[in-house]
Amino acid sequence: MRQQRFPEPWPPDIAGEDSLELLDRAYQGLTEEFAARAPGAPAVTWYEPEQTVGFWIRRMAQETVMHRVDAELAVAGEVSEIPEELAVDGIDEVLERFLVYGSHRWTEDFAPVLPERDQPPVLVATDGYGWLVRATPDGATIDIATPRTTAPASVCGDPVPLLLWLWRRADDGVEVEGDQGIIDELRALLCAATQ
């Protein structure tokens, strides 16, 4: 944000730093940068349609949630509360930016799991929100839907379990119905998107 370019070298050399001290230092530096800029201020990002500080605020919120989940699952086997609004935003982010944008921007990374022909859509839905996700040979597409939209397959649930399902952190708490083949294709695409 400060230099309007990606950091070099990346990743930075953090050898020899204490993990907790590094976390504290990085968190302080990041929050200071966010506080010094408006969300609409320019910032270089990997998502070409949005080159703003707001992109990084959203991305860091979602990244922090998923890494917290990883730590909790590793240590205690259960996940502490995630606000539903944050989970819905995370669902939208992983589908729109990681899956759809990523599969078109970095097609070579997705090529092994892209279908040979357009596939029927999978409805991904939660409390008042719905997304129709379709796998095509050129990448994934998405259409906004309602939770009542019909599709040959669906993955539905409350926001938090659905977010965890999409990020492949948990399989319980969602209803998976319909054509298992296209659901499996969606999971394969999500795996490529979130590695």
From TrEMBL:
Record flagged with keyword Isomerase: yes
GO molecular function: isomerase activity
Pfam family, one: MDMPI_C
Mycothiol-dependent maleylpyruvate isomerase metal-binding domain residues: 15-71
Keywords: Isomerase
InterPro entries xrefs: MDMPI_C-term_domain, MDMPI_metal-binding
UniProt domain MDMPI C-terminal: residue ranges: 85-181
PANTHER family assigned: CONSERVED PROTEIN
Protein known as: Maleylpyruvate isomerase family mycothiol-dependent enzyme
Species of the source: Rugosimonospora acidiphila
